[in-house]
UniProtKB/TrEMBL annotation:
<dbReference type="GO" id="GO:0031514">
    <property type="term" value="C:motile cilium"/>
</dbReference>
<feature type="compositionally biased region" description="Polar residues">
    <location>
        <begin position="233"/>
        <end position="247"/>
    </location>
</feature>
<dbReference type="GO" id="GO:0060271">
    <property type="term" value="P:cilium assembly"/>
</dbReference>
<dbReference type="GO" id="GO:0070062">
    <property type="term" value="C:extracellular exosome"/>
</dbReference>
<dbReference type="InterPro" id="IPR052628">
    <property type="entry name" value="CFAP70"/>
</dbReference>
<protein>
    <submittedName>
        <fullName>Uncharacterized protein</fullName>
    </submittedName>
</protein>
<feature type="region of interest" description="Disordered">
    <location>
        <begin position="1"/>
        <end position="25"/>
    </location>
</feature>
<feature type="region of interest" description="Disordered">
    <location>
        <begin position="233"/>
        <end position="260"/>
    </location>
</feature>
<feature type="compositionally biased region" description="Low complexity">
    <location>
        <begin position="1"/>
        <end position="13"/>
    </location>
</feature>
<keyword id="KW-0677">Repeat</keyword>
<dbReference type="GO" id="GO:0003341">
    <property type="term" value="P:cilium movement"/>
</dbReference>
<keyword id="KW-0802">TPR repeat</keyword>
Amino acid sequence: MSRRTSQATSRASFKSPPVQRDPNMKETVISFNIKGGQNLSATKDGSEMFLRLSFGSFTAESEYIEAKTEASNVKLAIKEEISGANTAFYDNLVRFPLTISLLEMLPKEKKQKEDKIICHREVHRDLSPFLKGKRKISESVREVSKEAPNIQVNLEISVSISPDAAKKGKAKPDDGELHNHGIALINLESLLYPGVKTVSGKFKVNPFTQNQLIRAGYGESITASSCNSGTILSMGSTSRNDSSSAGGVSDNRPESRQAAQDALPYKELNSSVFFEISFSRALVDRATLQDLDKNLATLIPMRPKIPRKKYGAEISVEEYKSQITEVAKLVLAEIRAFAPSTKGESFEKSLLYQLNRTGKHAQFHENF
């Protein structure tokens, strides 16, 4: 008998922060229909397999089905709905991915207190296309377990939304008020570093105010155009002003100091956007190795090569002979300059006596 025969943590509502409901928004329902278990096996006999669905703070699990090491068809299914009708609900479609996991709870061993669960595969899917008018996302997943390559993971994923979740909260052209209008300032200065072609990251979204653009260096014209449109900043036809023009605009006006009430959820929910921009080539080329070699050559002047010392038996014999020749020349010079001081004494004895007395005999031995 399975330890759990019903859905473990299924919740029928979506926990979003308390935000005032917009009367212009209809309640939106997202339906999840996840199936799996075809040709499924476990790492141990007696293990219980189940599916888990996570989306933001919402979690649901399928029934726990006992499985064996031999592959068989079992029925794992999650069928749930969540609903919402405020900006927080739609914001979560962008902030959180849908995560589906195939899990295995191993049979308890002796003296084991806590359950041991293996995650065979996690599947992440983006639900933001619902905000662009898409009504249904269907997909079949055929993968292998990351824990046991012999275990197949087969899933059928179906997510639908009703009614259309595309946002329609734009300001009216005649009133000039902002509606759900946030701003994220992105620093692109790293593109000026040599070889950099891509900038990406998560950037915080704040409620839009004129002061934020002015402090960033943009002048009155771009803030005025954004207020009139109430949607997307039209930066293509507006140039960036210098600090002097930005500094001349007063920050004390109520419309520049305060954000629209319906834009406050961006701050309350700590919203952020992921931004990535890539160029086919870097704005500033990276220096090549050849350029670096040229620069080093100008800094380090050329010097003559160090002569290599020769080694070997022939070189040793030549050096030995040259030393004998040098000592012989020194002895010959002494003999030619020597004049015996006493008569009757042999020339050889007198020469040796003179060499030993002056220490030149020992010097010849040292030189040799």
